[in-house]
Amino acid sequence: MLEVKDLRKSYADIEVLRGVSLSLARGECYGLLGPNGAGKTTTLRACLGLVEPDSGTISVLGLPVPKSAREARIRLGVVSQTDNLDPDFTVVENLMVYGRYFGIPERTLRERIPQLLDFSELSARADSRMRELSGGMQRRLTLARALINDPDLVFLDEPTTGLDPQARHVIWDRMKQLLAKGKTILLTTHFMDEAERLCTRLSIMDSGRIISTGTPRELIARHIEPEVVEVYGEGLEQWVNTHASLADRTERTGDTVFCYLSHAEPLITTLESRPSLRYLHRRANLEDVFLKLTGRDLRD
After folding, report:
1. 150 and 271 share a domain?
2. Cα pseudo-dihedral 74, 75, 81, 87, rounded to 10
3. Same domain, 203 and 65
4. Is residue 197 part of a domain?
5. Are 232 and 164 found together in one domain?
6. Beta carbons of 243 and 230 less than 8 angstroms apart
7. Is residue 40 part of a domain?
8. Pair 67, 85 in one domain
9. Per the domain annotation, does 293 fall within a domain?
10. Which of 155, 227, 246, 293 is most buried, judged by most C-beta within 10 A?
11. Quick one: 4 exposed, middle or buried, by C-beta within 10 A (0-12, 13-18, 19+)?
């Protein structure tokens, strides 16, 4: 469905893509994760033919991009990071006008739009304008609009950013429905739980390179000890000096020490006798992998 080989792109003296390669199989949700500036959006824009790479090859649905980008985009759906709905149009008008860009006959659009409104739970809002819709409703409309041409491959660039938990779960449910229908999704996100829930496979990017690829479970098993204990509170320094060696590995961020272990019981025993310390014992997750591979420093 999508194959990228050794993609490279520079702006002035800054190399933003450094040999990126990835491939998507039909029917999978493939995640592309990375901190700000990692190269995710540039990769997506190159796949859409909006950025011409310096070298490397891109095949979208069997078509070479950017040479045949227009033909490829006819079969793609795209949800950008920010909503770009027309504020002067109603919900139905946004779908109708966007469908005309693809040359879809009006009769087909009138048959398809009610299905998309039902899919996005916006049937009751068909005649509403954008100022009357919540952020979650607008995001669902943006997703519905991306499906107006019945695409084979859907690009979702941070589709749930800024949404409350209820709206995020609705978007997740709609993505699962798309996958159940055999659609293929390329997802970029900063939400590790979102990637862990939805992605068949994923790649973690940093500084223009892909640094690890696999299923969420494979990445966790490959890079992180299975258990994590987060410790914070009064007397932390003394406890660290005395007992942190029981962990296989420790990291410190602010006033919290993260202890990574294969067996947490001995370390937890030392904490139970110290009421001034608080701790959280949990299984390792994809966020632990992400932070280990890309670092804990803030990116702007």
Report:
1. no
2. 50
3. yes
4. yes
5. no
6. no
7. yes
8. yes
9. no
10. 155
11. buried
Residue 173 CA to residue 160 CA, distance in Å, equals 12
Q: What is the pTM of this model?
A: 0.91
CA–CA distance from 263 to each of 216, 219, 269, 282 (Å)? 21, 19, 12, 12
Taking the alpha carbons of 163, 81, 172, 38 in that order, is the dihedral positive or negative?
negative
Contact 135, 167 (CB under 8 A): yes
What tokens appear for 229 in the block? 């204990």
Query: Among all chains, which residue has been given the structure tokens 């087909």?
Result: 108
For residues 35 and 207, the answer to whether their CB atoms sit within 8 Å is no
Q: Which of 173, 204, 221 is the last residue of a domain?
A: 221
| Contacts (Cβ under 8 Å, ≥6 apart) of 24 | 1, 2, 3, 30, 153, 184, 186
Task: Find the CATH number of the domain harbouring 139.
Answer: 3.40.50.300
Instruction: Tell me the two tokens of residue 238.
Output: 């003394």
9-18: long-range pairs with CB below 8 Å, 24+: 9/42, 9/46, 9/51, 9/53, 9/54, 10/54, 15/208, 16/42, 16/208, 17/42, 17/43, 17/46, 17/53, 17/56, 17/208, 18/207, 18/208, 18/209
Q: What whole-number distance in Å separates Cα of residue 219 and Cα of residue 199?
A: 12
Q: What is the pLDDT along the chain (300 residues), one digit of tens a residue?
A: 999 999 999 998 899 999 999 999 999 999 999 998 899 999 999 999 999 999 999 999 999 999 999 999 999 999 988 878 999 999 999 999 999 999 999 999 999 999 999 999 999 999 999 999 998 999 999 999 999 999 999 999 999 988 889 989 999 999 999 999 999 999 999 899 999 999 999 999 999 999 999 999 999 999 999 999 999 999 999 999 999 899 999 999 889 999 999 999 999 999 998 999 999 999 999 999 999 999 877 666
Domain around 273: 225-283
Closest residue by Cα to residue 203 from 225, 182, 188:
188
First to last CA, the chain: 32
- Report the distance separating Cα 34 and Cα 189, nearest Å: 8
Whether residues 202 and 75 fall in one domain: yes
Sole residue written with tokens 């304008």: 129
